[in-house]
Amino acid sequence: MEVKSLTPTVSVAPQILPEEVAALAAAGFRAILCNRPDGEGADQPGFGEVARAASLAGLEAAYLPVASGKVTDAEAEAFARLLDRLPKPVLAYCRTGTRSATLWSLAEAARGRPLPEIVAAAKAAGHDMAAVARRIANGGRTPTGGGGIRHEVVVVGGGAAGIAVASSLRARKPDLDIAIVDPADIHYYQPGWTMVGGGVFDPRRTAKTMASLIPPGVTWIRAAVAAFEPENDAIILDGCRVVTYGKLVVAPGLKLDWGGIEGLAETLGRNGVTSNYRYDLAPYTWELVQGLKRGTAVFTQPPMPIKCAGAPQKAMYLAADHWRAAGVLKDVDIRFCNAGAVLFGVKDYVPALMEYVRRYGINLHFQETLTRIDGPARTAWFTRIGPGGATETVERRFDMIHVVPPQVAPDFLRVSPLADGAGWMDVDQATLRHRRYPGIYGLGDACNAPNAKTAAAARKQAPIVAHNLLRDMGAVQGGDAIYDGYGSCPLTVERGKIVLAEFGFGGRLLPSFPAWLIDGRRPSRLAWLLKERMLPWMYWKAMLRGREWLARPELAA
């Protein structure tokens, strides 16, 4: 008997036997719900036998027979009513558990539970709800509308990667029919938030309306994606609208999991708790830095992967440089609590960073992950991994804390057929095509290519996807465009100097400039000018407009 939990009060199982009922009662179940019609299989006990065993064990039993593969809306509604009435917890069963899981999924959709949560719970119980995704998206009822709309190319995501790839496609084939799907009204230049938190940029420099950035001739579908149907060349939007495509590009970015740290969401933006990973909080970072004259400042970094792996320490260096200039550095205890085992993943840049760690008197704490925070008490708790893998809890007091949340793929991607086992878009790292579905491509932070998740990576990936997609359509000639893993992390080690880290797969250095101009392994004033003045301009005026300066793809022979 294999029982799988969907929620704390509802579980599903394959066919149960009368002699197994007592064990279910001992496990704490109070009701059994049968969804398998009597006589469906030659070796199947009838519901009456199971019900008698349930009565003897003190369990309530209910019978809602459903034909295999034919779950109706009325049956899902009846299932919901039974769940409301029956004592909890309830075990629902059928031949394999799938019908019961389907009924639960549709019932939960009618209650308003989001599709990704439903699909994830069913998937964890071993049941794939892809076949009823449209019904789940439609509030648990069978859609009655038409066939939706179609575009030659659909791009999911209107962030840096999505708009850049749409622009690169239009630059190569101006008459291509493209739609971008994204519900956001505002587009943010997120690399600028470090500078906002350091008092360098005004936050307004990092935001523009989405409408002003959608490439000319590209359709903007202002909606959120609920699910993917790659077998049908379709995506399902919230509200169960369906969009079909000839080619699909998936670039939705990633999800900042603020809820992954206990107590964090309740205290963000006050009690000395801040993060440069949010537009509205970066100014608070600068406010805290200016206001701190003595005390403890904690900076955290969660487990990888995260967007811009250098951002957690960039905030720290700029803050420390301000305290140095203000003459209070000696009175500030700076602590960097990093879930990783090293300061930076590419060893060539570590010596320069360590010079600043020593200059600012920063205390490094590796393999410490923030798990809980109490803002009013100014206390944070970390899980530290020690020698041999043993863990312990470390309590740290703070006067200010800069938190970087754990990060995951968006829910609708994580539970979809397009995801790998960890929930990321499953692509070939060289061509950025999906590994299993022809005609689907991925780029940006949500894909599983082993590169740093940076805007610079998306800038390089966009022309590669554009070329390979059009090549697959027969619209351009030549071999595949190949991605070398390029990413860039301008590490702001002090106001006016940057260590310009540029690297590809395996940590191979991929500098854009000769060493006599900018040696990325050393702090540079010129690299600061690049970050402060040139990169924002290149982002808004080049990358998002299909101008591929320093980003032309290399083609395989």
TrEMBL record:
Signal peptide span: none
Keywords: FAD, Flavoprotein, Oxidoreductase, Quinone, Transit peptide
PROSITE patterns, A to Z: RHODANESE_3 (PS50206)
Domain Rhodanese: 76-131
Keyword Oxidoreductase tagged: yes
UniProt-listed GO biological process terms: sulfide oxidation, using sulfide:quinone oxidoreductase
Known cofactor(s): FAD
MF terms in GO: FAD binding; hydrolase activity; quinone binding; sulfide:quinone oxidoreductase activity
Matches recorded under InterPro entries: BLH_phosphatase-like (IPR005939), FAD/NAD-bd_sf (IPR036188), FAD/NAD-binding_dom (IPR023753), Prot-tyrosine_phosphatase-like (IPR029021), Rhodanese-like_dom (IPR001763), Sulphide_quinone_reductase (IPR015904)
PANTHER family hit by this protein: SULFIDE:QUINONE OXIDOREDUCTASE, SULFIDE:QUINONE OXIDOREDUCTASE, MITOCHONDRIAL
Family matches, as NCBIfam families: TIGR01244 family sulfur transferase
Protein name in UniProt: Bifunctional protein tyrosine phosphatase family protein/NAD(P)/FAD-dependent oxidoreductase
